[in-house]
Amino acid sequence: MISLLPVFFPVLTGLYMLKAQIKDRKGREKYVFYTLLATLVFTCVTNFAFYDTQLTFARFAAGIEISFHIDSVAVLFSTIFSAVWCLVAVFSMEYMKHEGEENRFFAYFIASLGGLIGVAYADNLATLYLFFEMMSLLSYVLVVHSRTNESLLAGRKYIYYSLFGASLGLIGIFYFYSAGWNTAFTAGGVVPAGTDSTALSVMTVLAVIGFGCKCGMFPLHAWLPTAHPQAPAPASSVLSGLITKAGVIAIIRIVYFTVGADNLRGTAAQTVLLLLSVVTIFMGSMLAYKEKLLKKRLAYSTVSQVSYVIFGLMLLNEAGVTGALLQVVFHALAKNVLFLTAGAFIYKTGKTMVADLYAMGKSMPKTFICFTVAGLSLVGVPMTAGFVSKWYLALGALQTGSGVIGFVGISVIMVSALLTAGYLVSVTAKVFFAKRSDEVQQTFEPNSYMLVPLAVLTAFIIIFGVFPAPVISFVSQIAQSIM
What we know:
The chain contains 18 helices and two strands. It has helices at 5-20, 25-49, 72-95, 102-121, 125-143, 149-178, 198-212, 223-230, 233-259, 261-264, 268-290, 294-314, 318-349, 365-379, 385-398, 403-433, 448-466, 469-482; strands at residues 54-59, 65-69.
């Protein structure tokens, strides 16, 4: 049971805040920080001490079990979640002063992390579905935090899409159970090799699209640009950079641990899912380029960038999976920086439009240096982390067997990079060099609560861009083990 502390400790301690209603701000900050720091420690210790350990938590009728397994995929995702969540929490301690209802926000903020780690640790389809839904319900409260009509509508859209997507995934789960296959996740898949079934292809596509809803995958992407502008910036940050990765975990578990890459390679299911990912990459980039509202632009960017991950996974080769997992890590860093930077800007100025950023580099230079580095990483500029992941995605697309869709994917990724430069890097140039009649001369950088998390995340973007070998080695081993 000690191995489950990363899952249940944040859920229980988070929800306890609803009852405790901590009045003292300093006391609340200590509670939040030490709770999340303890979760990070528990996660690291669990991932090391209980690696490759399987634990059954509960058994129900018809062979359904709630069980957990600490494998390499779980280690990668749970470590990213808990580490970045801590940094966002520090930022939130300052930001949430102007949002109010801090006890409620931090209660669900902490509890959502437990649900997300539960998704990472899930050992079978039933457990995955249970914690996927739990995480959606807990994070819904973050979206509707302000309780305005707009936020309530956005929250309703978020939960409707999440539940509908999960229900599509559930249809696939029912199919796998009814077929009599073992639903415990096994590297290489549990479906017998050579299984050629139209039903298998259809159910796989349904399940990937359903869980892909959380990633913002077309056609279930519309919730993401609606929810992000309404949620507080720290909530938008984890929704975009981390919670979207719950869908990625589900896709990995279905494609590589249930169906098996060999049963999908060269099938119509692979082609359909590759096409959907390519469409989403291009569509998200175009919509981001046209969008004038800052947080909504970043949300459309997430629609595009997370679909890079799905594209890499559905190439069904080692280089593609390596690129996809690298993109998971590096997108989490960059997108959290971008949303937190947007939050710092909104917190200090109250402005929300992209045009409002122009000439703000003189007033908030440290903040927008972080924004610039994160933007360059999403474009894929060398010496930033994003270049490394996109390089491996291109290698995967060029491998024998990828076919025409591989070349189409590379072309779309290149076009997307240009569009990303247009909607992020061009804005950065105007941030530092534009002139405006009402230009503010004084410096009003946010305090260390906001700047330190931004600086740490930005530093890792550069470090992983210059010295990517350790991360590449780790994710390559994961890719080799699941093929």
